Amino acid sequence: MFTTNLKYWRENGVDIVLYLDDGLGMSKNKLESLECSSFVKTSLLEAGFLMNTDKFIFEPVQYLEWLARKLAQVTGEVISMCPVMGSITRLMTRYLHWAIENRVKWDLKLTLECPDCVFNELGFWLNNIQRLNKKHLSGYSFPHVLVYSDASNIAAGAYSIDTDSNIFHQMWTLQESL
Question: Which InterPro entries match (predicted)?
């Protein structure tokens, strides 16, 4: 989807990393960052892309962490251990799920309604993960195919490794995006 744009930006001196519909640009100083940011924004608009202005951060920052995504990643890793650890994975991620579901947007500051509850659950897993990881899965083998995927309210995309490197992307219809 963005392959042509990525090549164009890099040919024009923009250091940028993309993953499906997320991107991160890097520069040596604030002035260069502003110039690169403006260049990318202008080229996206000229290419006909519609931008969700609430999601994009075009002003340079020195530190950026997608906390909601990190929290979702950790929660997903814990839930994926359900076959080994059982229902404790669901019981001790209730507030983590609640925090993720109640976020305003992925890329905005994450405000926790009950931070103590979230931190207690994270602390529980930090202190108990090895103790609870005792059951062995019979017949487990490493996956033969890895799939990376992402979706937004307007489109979805996926990339598979080890099967011909298939790429999938699709824009949602108006009805699907509602």
Answer: DNA/RNA_pol_sf, Hepadnavirus_pol/RT
Instruction: Retrieve residue 29's tokens.
Output: 């100083």
Q: Report d(CA 80, CA 71) in Å as an integer.
A: 14
Closest CA to 33 of 54, 16, 55, 56: 16
Dihedral-angle region of residue 165 (phi above 0 means left; psi in -120 to 50 means alpha; beta otherwise): left
Instruction: Report the predicted TM-score, pTM, of the whole model to 2 decimal places.
Output: 0.44
- Nearest-angstrom CA–CA distance, 160 and 167: 7
Within 24-178, where are the H helices? Answer: 30-46, 67-79, 82-85, 88-91, 94-101, 115-132, 174-177
Q: What are residue 74's phi and psi, to 5 degrees?
A: -65, -45
- Euclidean distance between CA atoms 169 and 1, whole angstroms: 7
Domain ranges of the chain: 1-64, 67-132, 146-177
Q: What is the largest CA-CA distance in the chain?
A: 57
Condensed to tens digits (0 to 9), the pLDDT of residues 153-174 reads 888 888 887 666 677 788 888 8
CB atoms closer than 10 angstroms to residue 42: 10
Angle at 126 between CA 87 and CA 74, to 5 degrees: 70
Residue 9, SS3?
helix
